[in-house]
Request: fold
Amino acid sequence: MSSLIISGLRAAVDGNEILKGVDLEIGAGEVHAVMGPNGAGKSTLSHVLMGRPGYEVLGGSVTLDGVELLDLPTWQRARAGLFLAMQYPTEVPGVALSDVLDASAATDFGSGDELDRRLLAEADRIGFDHQFLDRPLNVDMSGGEKKRNETLQLAVMAPRFAVLDELDSGLDVDAMHQVSQRVEAATEETGLGILVITHYSRLLDELKPDRVHILVRGRFVASGGPELAQELEETGYGAYQDDEPAPPAATATDPFADPLA
Ligand code: ADP
Ligand code: MG
Reply:
């Protein structure tokens, strides 16, 4: 069974340590949610996993079925079975999605009819208009169209593990449903393991997490079942945001207590 194992991962941006020791183990078909306040390091985690330039790994390891990913360039991480749906998908003028998938080292379809068939079938599955397949990648697309585009790439590439960074941002209710259904189906059809980053439990109502982890200032401060996401929706992150342990409550002295008791 496939596994993605993150241990003791520490990373810096511009000399500032953002990830301060992240441990997480994801098995095939599992959905792990990472939630946390703005600036906690969630996107940094996704970028470090995929090997985006500009992030300095200070320590730890990330293995996919025993292969150390941190030693590999991004394309080889993709080849090894890791996929990232970006929070802010990049616009690439002049390059269509079909060109990207044609050239991708991560698909086994190569170019030609089989890839085209697969692309059209997957587009239909998530209600993605075929006209977008030949348009320049993400250029002039709405937020929701970009996220469907990311999902389409995920579905065609069929990775073993996917990191979904705020896949729900910019999606209307129908798109959210289609996209999360498609991803959920992949966990059953191909055993896709998922690390889903989100602020809202709404996505997690559709894409049911096995585990929920709360990231605050570069560390997981709590982990639990799906009920943790629900709890956060109600209470916010306030209870988890204190770095310092709360000072012990002052001992109350009762002036009327019996001194001999
Ligand atoms: P989240 O996704 O949890 O909202 P991020 O991972 O985007 O948080 O950011 C975590 C922290 O790292 C923030 O303080 C942010 O300003 C900083 N950071 C992230 N990327 C960069 C970057 N490329 N350059 C400088 N600082 C960055
Ligand atoms: Mg982010």
User: Anything to note?
Assistant: The first strand starts at residue 3 and ends at 13. Residues 244-252 have pLDDT under 50 and may be disordered. Residues 65 and 138 are 32 Å apart (CA to CA).
